[in-house]
Specification:
This protein is of the alpha+beta class. The chain has three domains: 177 residues, Beta-Lactamase (2-Layer Sandwich), CATH 3.30.450; 78 residues, Orthogonal Bundle (Helix Hairpins); 153 residues, Heat Shock Protein 90, CATH 3.30.565.10. It has eleven helices and eleven strands.
Length: 486
Amino acid sequence: MGILRRIQRWVFPPRASTQTWMFLTFALFVGVAVGAVGLYAALALRGQTRTATQEMMLAQAQRVAAQVDRTSSPVERRRVVRQIEQFADLEITVADADTVRAGRLPRGGAGSQNAGSPAPGAPRNGSARYTVRETPGGEEMFFLSLYRPNSNLLVRVGQPASPLYELVKHQQTVLVVGMAMALALALLGSWLATYQIVTPLKRIRNSARAVGLGRFEGQIEIDSRAAEFQDLADSLNRASDAFREKIDELERVTQLQKEFIGNVSHEVRNPIHAIGGYLEALSSPGLPEKQRKSYAEKALGNLHRLQTLFDDLIDIAQLEYREDLVEAETFDLQHLIDEVSDMLRPKAEEKGLALQTQNPPIHVHADRSRIRQVLTNLIDNALAYTPEGTVRCRTRKRLDKVRIEVVDTGQGIDEEHLERIFDRFYRAESHRARKSGGTGLGLSIVQQILQAHGEEICVESTKGRGTRFWFELPHEEAPEPVPEAA
């Protein structure tokens, strides 16, 4: 059992390459088929041919013996034998007690036999003996000896190999050689086929290992005409690209999260420290009333700034995780702009800026409260960063959309900062932003609100000449007035 188990493990190892298993499978099944056909050609077919030859020669020997038995003298027996040899192309030997031979001597040299004692090994009691001998010329000669007990005669019929027998023998050789060649070609073909299958699998396996180790560079290239391998490679490449994008996005989000936490902690720490300092100063005895009032106002200002920061953070979180907070309706956009301008006009007048918001009435479909927040942030931001000149909010219809623009004549934004001004806590000019009291979240909130509406915020700016923000909202026709009841 141990030897058989070792042989089995050697022939069929517990772990081997796909190419080895496929090659062994081909070799096993094709080898069994070729071996079976070869054995049939080598044994069964040759045996059947000899059996047919024996039966044919037995019938001939019986016919010859029957004719010989009917003769009455040795002379007539020789005449009959010669006639049969002449017409049947047979070599016939008849031996009895008085005749050494009739006809030709048998090939191989037949000696004289006693009457009651046939040749050694001769058949007895009507039985037949079949032998094959090779002539000096290398040809096969078939002999069948038949003993006739009634006449005490031994009849031996010799016949060279028939053309059919030679053809069968030749075909047998051709068949064996052909099966051997078929086995060799089958093994070669199986090796080529397994190579064509295994080579793409190895590349896919190596790529899968690289993906498992976090290496997403490069594409899986399959040099195969098989549609399944091509589809598999395309699917893996798409999956690898998707994983790469997800990982890049996760890395970007992680970096943003780190920056966000750092910025929040910094933005929160400053007002808290300021409030703590002012409260500590307020507790000092003998502090003048005017200075006490100033410290209290500054503490309240920092507290307001802190409250505004948390309100903005809550707005961003709600817009990111609660898209259902956007409730669209049809409203007069110019009426909303007037409300925002009335609220911010005192700030513009305080800085000596002209706030221009006159536009014809026009209706849009959006969330009125959220668009109010967008307009407030954009106009307030323009007022904060415009030292002198004009801030305008204008509208115009474009196909099925309404474009809203907020334009100022401020100092503008450097081109290198334009791509990041919508990032949270990003400030193009940090000192001026902190002086204005901004949280650095206004433009990020604007972007989140418009993206929730399916729109985008755009910006263009020229350093020293001003900045223009614009976005679009779906246009709606003015609703029909509701008739008053009589």
